[in-house]
Amino acid sequence: MAGGQKAKGKVEEATGKTKEAVGRTVGNERMIAEGQAKKSKGAARQAKEKAKDVFKH
Q1: Residue 32 C-alpha from the chain's centroid
Q2: In angstroms, what CA-CA distances link 39 with 19, 55, 57?
């Protein structure tokens, strides 16, 4: 199950980066902020899963 959560984190992070880039391109501050938030959420999810793996072994 942890692999699925890691993958979900990577997808969230990639989606956030894309949304942030599009927001910068079109000059939409709200889209930039949403992209940054999604990117951070994905990074946090990945970090949580990595920490679980460390304590599992």
Answers
A1: 14
A2: 9, 25, 28
